[in-house]
Structure formats: structure tokens, C-alpha cells
Design a protein that fits this description.
alpha+beta; Defensin A-like; 2 domains
Amino acid sequence: MRSRQQNTAVMTKNIKALFTLFSMVNADKSYETLLSRIQGDLVNASKKDSARLEIPKPQIIWVGQRTIFRNFMEFPKALRREPEKLLLYLNKELASAGYIAGERVFFLGRKEPSSFGALIERYVKDYVICPVCQSPDTRTEKVKKLGFLVCEACGARSSIKGNYA
Ligand SMILES: [Zn+2]
């Protein structure tokens, strides 16, 4: 018969072996979890990449001496910016006084249709895209009249010029 001490020693040994086994199984599991998590992240990242900012195509027509930006309202929605701010920017760049009417904006005079796409592209670059990580998931903030672009992807805070976002 084994002594009590020996028994305890055997038991301790067994428990230790069991623990090792457990931690191995757990390690395996957590490795799998980690792997699937990483794979999930990768899928999400590529999804996000392909779903990057989709900028609509401006529909510009001339009616008499006016220029009508027919789908203007799609842009503030897509860029997540105030329509008034985007319009302020376009008015400044086009030296105009366009106004919103429903989904459209009316400008006086015949504006070059191709200039709208270019202006919006510049607006996106200056007021939407994070300059640090290039993410379009940003919002704007005002602190003491100074405008900031706050990135929801990397957290960067960048100053922006003017009152257009
Ligand atoms: Zn960023």
C-alpha cells in the first residue's frame, strides 16, 4: 500500500498532467479563434476597401443661362457632410451664388459641367479623406472656430481650412 504522501504526489502529478493537457487544448482553441478572427478581419478589411467611398457622377445641365446640378443632394449624403457646407464650397470655387431647390442646385450662368466632378474630387481630398490613413470614414469637429477632421478608422485629428466641412 502506498503512503498518503505518495498518493498525494501521484495525484498532484496527474492534476499537473491534466492541466498541461487542458492548456494545450485551450491554446489550440485560442489559436483557432485567433486565426478565424484574423481571417474575419481580413475579409472585413477587403470588404471595406472595395466599399470605399463611392462618389456619384454629377448630373449637370444647362437651362437657358442657368446651370442645374440635378443630383446635388446625393453628394452630401455619400460624403456625410452638410449640404450647405458643400454648396458653400462650390459657390466659392465657382464664384457663384447657387441655391438648393429640392435635390438640385441652381447656379446662375453656364458653368462648365466637367468642373463639378473635379471640384467634388478636391473637396473629398481636402474635407473627407483622412490624410493619415486615407480612410473616408471621417467626421468634422469644431473647436474654437477651428475645423478638424476626425478619422473614425485611425483616430487621427487633422486641421482643415475654412468653413466648408
Ligand atoms: Zn485615418
